[in-house]
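User: Reviewer 2 asked us to show a designed sequence for the structure in our supplementary figure. I'm pasting the structure tokens here. Could you produce the per-position amino acids so we can include them in the response letter?
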């Protein structure tokens, strides 16, 4: 990959319906207590999840009624397209660009099915050119923010001069279920929110950071760690193994291997910018990467203010870190289905 690739801009977007965690817990108790006999044993997760508020695509009452694939898909197509336009428009404006300037659009989303995909649905509103290349990607889950940015950077490097727009949108709340409850569904209810983020990249100098490395690591025999189960009424979350202990034990050697390919070591990184899957995941990341306890402060802030939005969340953290001042070298990293660690190495622009 010929480098560097300039990260010209970054923008985030959130839906308008804001839910306090206490409100979500009360609603969950009313809906689940009679259906899930172990609810009260699970209820402390609403306090320990580290989430104060989150934003969702529909008013809370919408989630109180049984919903099937048609209704969930309608909500996804409407809401995800709106968030795509908000995030993409803001990212292009920050870069001093507009829709007709975009040559390649990378769209990452795993919480709904859209054919035509989201960038096609947003094409007229964004005024994208008819010859703009479209690259929709499904299935990356929480790793999608890092993996998608890495893919956009590779495409920019392969096409010098091209403006590549990367947008990730996730509406995790649409997987909220009233039927067939599991412990994983209760945890998901305490953690997940909706959001979008967008970046503009181009080969060459400029921007606020340079993409200087991209790497992924997928562990064998880990398909059951995280994912979706597809059922008649919608998607259901899979957390078949405890992610925090897995990350604590396995992330550092994988990170060392990924950085070795860039002639770097873990100690060479000034800041790991991490996807905050939850408080316990954050603590596991700190232990695994030898980060002082509490060092992943922006991660905790984003989790508290927005919940886990899946793929966009790591970019929300990157946005907060850069507004406070990026260190000389950082690594954006996220864990997702596969089970996969995805990384993008960033050098602060001069």
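Assistant: Here is a per-position design you can include in the supplement:
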């Amino acid at each position: 990959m010929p480098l560097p690739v300039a990260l010209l801009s970054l923008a985030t977007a959130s839906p308008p319906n804001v839910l306090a965690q206490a409100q979500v817990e009360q609603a969950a108790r009313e809906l689940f207590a009679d259906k899930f006999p172990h609810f009260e044993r699970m209820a402390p997760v609403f306090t320990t999840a580290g989430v104060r508020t989150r934003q969702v695509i529909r008013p809370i009452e919408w989630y109180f009624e049984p919903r099937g694939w048609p209704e969930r898909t309608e909500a996804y197509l409407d809401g995800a397209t709106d968030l795509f336009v908000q995030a993409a428009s803001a990212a292009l404006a920050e870069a001093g660009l507009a829709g007709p300037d975009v040559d390649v659009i990378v769209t990452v989303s795993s919480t709904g099915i859209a054919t035509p995909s989201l960038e096609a649905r947003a094409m007229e509103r964004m005024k994208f050119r008819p010859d703009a290349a479209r690259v929709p990607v499904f299935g990356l889950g929480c790793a999608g923010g890092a993996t998608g940015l890495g893919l956009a950077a590779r495409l920019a490097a392969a096409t010098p001069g091209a403006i590549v727009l990367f947008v990730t949108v996730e509406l995790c709340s649409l997987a909220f279920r009233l039927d067939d409850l599991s412990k994983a569904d209760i945890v998901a209810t305490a953690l997940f929110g909706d959001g979008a983020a967008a970046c503009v990249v181009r080969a060459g100098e400029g921007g606020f950071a340079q993409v200087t490395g991209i790497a992924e690591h997928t562990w064998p025999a880990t398909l059951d760690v995280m994912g979706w189960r597809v059922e008649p009424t919608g998607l259901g979350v899979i957390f078949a193994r405890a992610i925090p202990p897995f990350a604590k034990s396995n992330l550092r050697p994988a990170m060392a291997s990924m950085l070795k390919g860039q002639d770097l070591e873990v100690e060479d990184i000034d800041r790991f910018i991490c996807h905050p899957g939850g408080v316990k995941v954050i603590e596991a990341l700190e232990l695994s990467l030898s980060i002082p306890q509490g060092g992943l402060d922006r991660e905790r802030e984003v989790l508290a203010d927005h919940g886990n939005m899946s793929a966009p969340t790591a970019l929300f953290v990157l946005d907060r870190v850069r507004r406070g001042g990026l260190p000389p070298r950082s690594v954006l990293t996220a864990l997702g289905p596969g089970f996969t660690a995805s990384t993008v190495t960033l050098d602060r622009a001069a």
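For the response letter, you might also mention the following. The chain has a mean pLDDT of 93. The two ends are 21 Å apart (CA to CA).
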